[in-house]
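Amino Acid Chain and Its Fold in Token Form
===========================================
Purpose: to set a sequence beside its fold so the mapping can be learned.
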Amino acid sequence: MRLISAICLALALVAGLPGTALAQTDHTGAERIALWEQGVPGFEERRDLPEQSAEWWTRSINDPAIWHYAPQPWARSGAAVLIMPGGGHENLVTTTEGVAVARWFADHGVDAFVLYYRLFREPGVPWTVESPRQDAERAMRIIRQRSGEFGIDPERVGVIGFSAGGELARMTMLSPPVTPPGAGDATDRLDPRPDFGILVFPGPLNSADEAITPDAPPVLLSVANDDECCAQPTIDLFLAYRAAGAPVELHVYQEGGHAYNMGEATDLVSLQNWPERIIEWMTDRGLFAPASD
């Protein structure tokens, strides 16, 4: 498991590099929503420490937030997705595994929220493995709390995670909530469990208290067979879901390695078109029904 984790971390460091330079993260048209108005409880003094960004990555996340990409009002389906970029918990691949994903979902009528979560493997930070889980759960609660304002159905809020972000999405789906930082507030009393999940080449890290039961959130899994890091953990998760009688769909591509993202970084036609599987799966599950239905 340690070897697999090391491979995943190494792959994550190049996850945003399809062979061409990428611009710094562009949030044009999106709304930033801080997860805690005064900063993370207990770490308020870090709120104004600047993020660091270059080309494909962002790090030094001290004031975790979500960026909301809304679809056109006439196209809104009522579904929403919280996007968790990868990066080995040391960086965030905020371009190809964040903003590009959000714009794709918004173009398909889904409200998309890119999560900027704390990175516990970044050198010199006070965060623990529970920190990104606190951020993800807080984000889910905020989306549900403001669902009326956003025009979304609070029972159709899912997650999509890539690589290390897939690990975080998995824990958010399948493990009991962690203790919020500080004393907690009314938001922290809301349910953070996603209604569905999409895990794209998710890493092997999970939680000891994970529980896969028949009522686990339905999940769509996508991975390449030659992904040294993440193929086997993804298949194992599929088998665990299947054994539990929980709803699961798995797509294993013959080749493609790690970090094919939304198909923009590969010459393989099957991977270029794989996001169509998301549309098909969400349609089959009734997730694209208008919010008024």
Q: What stands out?
A: Confidence is low (pLDDT under 50) at residues 1-7, 9-23. The chain has one domain: 2-284.
